[in-house]
Write a structure and sequence with these properties.
Layout lengths: L1 H17 L16 H4 L25 H17 L3 H9 L2 H5 L10 H23 L9 H4 L1 H10 L9 H11 L5 H12 L22 H8 L28 H6 L3 E4 L11 E3 L2 E4 L2 E3 L3 H13 L8 H12 L3 H9 L3 E3 L4 H11 L13 H12 L1 H14 L2 H16 L1
Parallel strand pairs: 1-3, 4-5
Antiparallel strand pairs: 2-3
Helix pairs in contact: 3-6, 4-6, 6-9, 6-10, 10-11, 13-14, 14-16, 15-16
Length: 417
């Protein structure tokens, strides 16, 4: 009988465990990164100065900004003549919905969760407002007095794990500025992050629907996109299955040796991702590389990898494209001389290593790779006999002044003869 009772207990326990799966799966928006992704460069995903949301809350190295959160909240209460209760009650009604946004269990109780969302959310909104309107800043506010603090805040507020739901920010913005004016909030956020972007993008400047935005990182991704966003990739006519039939291209140095010209491409209204190849000329928009660039790209790629839509991974595709172009510091030097890479790191090898390592973040090759058509056309161009012959002449003779002199001397001798 005891053994039978034990089986009944185990069965009931399994039923309780299965109860979680009686409803359709919840769509999460804020995740903890899996270990395989983190181990490639753990620091690129960790905040340096401020914790937003529950995942990094309480870390010792992030405590300095907790005092600034309280200072901003105190000045906000005085400016708007509001009380802490006003914000607590407003956010309290959103707590359960906010918890559903996080894929990992949250260790905070209900009161701590509400307090965290109020202080973190109000700090973000006040930071955006003070950045846009200088008259709101305190005279000795260290955030705007010291560039290193401000630059790290820009970086930390777009980290994949360092987010709170965007609808929480909208609710707080309704109380601080004007109810329902969420386009203004989007505008302030995009303006705040504009210095962080390493190149031009087809930003919509607030036209994105608030209901489609999950958090600040998602806002950056949806408003910094290529001209081809929303357009299906061009299918390879030689591939009956349509997608995924493409081969790698050589590095920048090898492309030049094969007769491909590489030029800087700047066009009004264009985007960093809008790369073109026509008549043997590859045009690439300029890209700025600085200390925060790696973290910026890595977190956007992480956002794409955790997204349910695997067809909008244009940041990952772009980074993969550059990884093929950049095999060594020599390739970086060529791209820098062409004005395509603006290297603030100052070291060509550092830039080369950056892209070679970031590309390890991209798992496999996309069946919807956006640059597949360009890759195919480049390979066709490089394989044509005349282009190979011309590239050989350029490499062996016309790039060598002594070889040129010898050729001219032979021609003169031939004519005299």
């Amino acid at each position: 009988m005891a053994r039978s009772g034990g089986k009944d207990f185990v069965s009931m326990n399994i039923y309780e465990m299965l109860e979680v799966f009686s409803h359709p799966p919840t769509e999460f928006f804020i995740f903890r990164l899996h270990e395989e992704l983190r181990q490639l460069n753990d620091k690129a995903y960790d905040p340096e100065i401020i914790s937003i949301g529950p995942y990094h809350r309480g870390k010792q190295n992030l405590q300095m900004m907790e005092r600034h959160k309280l200072r901003y909240f105190h000045s906000l209460l005085q400016e708007k003549n509001l009380s802490p209760e006003d914000f607590v009650y407003a956010i309290g009604s959103l707590e359960l919905h906010a918890c559903d946004f996080y894929a990992e269990p949250i260790s905070l109780d209900s009161d701590e969760m509400i307090k965290m969302m109020v202080l973190d959310g109000c700090f973000i909104i006040e930071l955006l407002r003070k950045f846009d309107m200088e008259f709101l800043r305190d005279e000795n506010d260290p955030i705007f007095k010291r560039d290193w603090i401000f630059n790290r805040l820009q970086r930390d507020l777009m980290l994949f794990e360092n987010q709170i739901p965007f609808f929480v920010l909208c609710k707080l913005f309704d109380m601080i500025e004007a109810p329902g004016n969420h386009k203004r909030l989007i505008y302030l956020a995009l303006r705040f992050f504009s210095d962080l972007l390493p190149g031009t993008g087809k930003r919509e400047d607030g036209k994105e629907s608030q209901g489609k935005i999950s958090h600040l990182l998602g806002l950056i991704h949806s408003n910094w996109h290529p001209s081809f966003a929303g357009v299906e990739p061009v299918e390879d006519a030689s591939n009956k299955k349509g997608k995924g039939n493409w081969r790698f291209i050589p590095s920048t140095r090898e492309l030049q040796e094969s007769g491909v010209k590489i030029e800087k491409f700047e066009v009004t209204g264009g985007s960093l991702f809008d790369i073109e190849f026509k008549n043997g000329v590859m045009q690439i928009p300029p890209l700025t590389i600085e200390g925060r660039t790696e973290s910026f790209f890595r977190n956007l790629i992480a956002y794409e990898q955790y997204s349910p839509d695997n067809q909008f991974s244009y940041v990952a595709d772009y980074v993969k494209f550059l990884d093929f172009l950049i095999d060594s510091p020599k390739d970086v030097k060529i791209l820098s001389r062409r004005g395509i890479i603006d290297n603030w790191l100052g070291d060509d090898e550092a830039v080369s290593n950056l892209f070679n390592k970031i590309s390890d973040t991209v798992s496999g090759t996309s069946m919807h790779f956006r640059y597949a058509d360009i890759f195919n056309r480049v390979n066709i161009h490089c394989s044509q006999p005349w282009n190979l012959y011309r590239a050989t002449l350029n490499r062996n003779y016309f790039n060598n002044p002594w070889a040129m002199i010898a050729i001219m001397a032979r021609l003169v001798l031939l004519l005299l003869t």
